[in-house]
Design a protein that fits this description.
With about 375 residues, the chain is α/β, with parallel strands linked by helices. Among the domains are: about 20-105, Nucleic acid-binding proteins (OB fold (Dihydrolipoamide Acetyltransferase, E2P)); about 110-270, Rossmann fold, CATH 3.40.50.300. The chain is built from ten helices and 13 strands. It has helices at about 25-30, 35, 145-160, 175-185, 200-210, 225-230, 280-285, 290-295, 310-320, 325-374; strands at about 40-50, 50-55, 60-65, 85, 100-105, 110-115, 125-130, 130-140, 160-165, 190-195, 210-215, 255-260, 265-270. The strands form three sheets. The protein has a six-stranded mixed beta sheet with strand order 10-9-8-11-13-12, with helices on both faces. It has a five-stranded antiparallel beta sheet with strand order 3-2-1-4-5, with no helix packed on it. The longest helix has about 50 residues, at about 325-374. The protein binds guanosine-5'-triphosphate (GTP), magnesium ion and zinc ion (ZN). This is Small ribosomal subunit biogenesis GTPase RsgA.
């Protein structure tokens, strides 16, 4: 199967279904009617770089400008997985200034959002319109419980369904033990043990996925390898991990979107270096649901589960039903999330203040002008 964005041959869709293999639905088509009437065509964004994006349309892949889409809110910037209304360029070999460009984004069904790494605490969308978030975790290293809890919060926050895939089973002494460990951290989440070397459970994973799937996890976890196994072809670059610590080398550098042979769409992503949560208070409650349930039985409604008398959470720790580590990580993630939220509020307050200042000075100038006129 040719890679849809590096293959320069003309786009021919064997199924004749156009965009449907990229996830276009009747519902989307219905919502698009007005855009179509305005001469725009639907496009799904595969990747964004340097003010341009690779997108796929009914008539093939295009490289389009993002110029028409401006928002001060980085959460509304176009990203991989977004559906857009595209103003087509003039074919062939568009006249200068008539290259295809995005005119609008369609509302997102789901979005994976983290806090950006920059000092100003913005949210950054990693992928949009995703149905399943595959959290890839390597069995070749001891399970990092805190990292998995973070990934789960990120996934639940997106509105998509999380699925934990424990990779590299062929390198693990006791995959079932790690699966049990992961299950204790992620009640209600499906966990699959896989290996691309032996092919273990790749068929099961294929059957579990429908719609749009994104692969998330640390560098070297085996995301692109898993992607290739699902694609049945080596479309995605993979790279060896470092011998001394098994860490990946950040082989994948861009998010990519490719159709799966049996239907559905796959988004591969670069390994996450840090996973900072953004506005994820609700999903944290979901990840640590059993602690929230225990807390209902604490004597004090505002119990901090420290040294208060009658704390049901501490009692559960004493009874060996809950690990202190898990409570500590829950607290830590909550603090982090609250901090990110407070910085965001400060930024929004700042933006509002600036806008107010601009409006005020505009009014002042207008009044001055009028005063001079009278
Ligand atoms: N033995 C074994 N090795 C695997 C398996 N899956 C992946 N690997 C190896 O793990 C290394 C990293 O795999 P990648 O697929 O590049 O990992 P990635 O998660 O995409 O990494 P980044 O792109 O850096 O984020 C490669 O050397 C793969 O061959 C597996 O099931 N078994
Ligand atoms: Mg990769
Ligand atoms: Zn308590």
């Amino acid at each position: 199967m040719p890679h849809p964005f590096t293959d320069s041959s003309p786009f021919t869709d064997p199924s004749g279904a156009g965009l449907s293999r990229y996830g276009w639905t009747r519902a989307l088509d219905h919502a698009f009617a007005e855009h179509r009437a305005a001469g725009l065509v639907p496009a799904r964004i595969a990747r964004v770089d340097r003010g341009l994006c690779d997108a796929v349309t009914e008539s093939g892949p295009v490289r389009a400008a993002l110029t028409a889409i401006h928002s001060p809110d980085p959460l509304l910037a176009p990203c991989t997985g977004d559906w857009a209304a595209l103003l087509p360029g003039r074919e062939p070999g568009h006249e200068p200034g008539r290259e295809p460009r995005l005119a609008a984004l369609l509302p997102r069904r789901s979005a994976i959002v983290r806090s950006s790494a920059s000092r100003s605490s913005h949210g950054q969308v990693l992928a949009a319109n995703v149905d399943t978030v595959v959290l890839a975790v390597s069995l070749a290293a001891p399970l990092d419980a805190a990292k998995l809890e973070r990934l789960l919060a990120l996934a639940w926050d997106s509105g998509a369904r999380p699925l934990i895939v424990l990779t590299k089973a062929d390198l693990a002494a006791d995959p079932a033990a790690v699966q049990a460990e992961a299950a204790a951290l992620a009640p209600g989440v499906d966990i699959l043990v896989t290996s691309v070397t032996t092919g273990r459970n790749i068929d099961v994973l294929t059957a579990l996925l429908s719609g749009t799937t994104v692969l998330l996890g640390s560098s070297g976890a085996g995301k692109s390898s898993l992607g290739n196994a699902l694609l049945g072809d080596e479309l995605l670059a993979t790279g060896a991990v470092r011998a001394q610590d098994g860490k990946g080398r950040h082989t994948t550098v861009r998010r990519e979107l490719v159709p799966l042979p049996g239907g559905g769409v796959l988004i591969d992503t670069p390994g996450l270096r840090g996973i900072s949560l953004y506005d994820a208070a609700d999903s944290l409650e979901q990840v640590f649901a059993e602690i929230e349930r225990l807390a209902l039985d604490c004597r004090f409604g505002d119990c901090s589960h420290g040294s208060e008398p009658g704390c049901a959470v501490q009692a559960a720790i004493q009874a060996g039903e809950l690990t202190r580590r898990r409570l500590d990580n829950y607290r830590k993630l909550q603090r982090e999330n609250a901090y990110a939220a407070s910085r965001t509020d400060a930024r929004l307050r700042g933006e509002r203040a600036n806008r107010q200042k601009a409006i005020t000075s505009h009014l002042r100038a207008t009044y001055k002008f009028r005063d001079r006129q009278s």
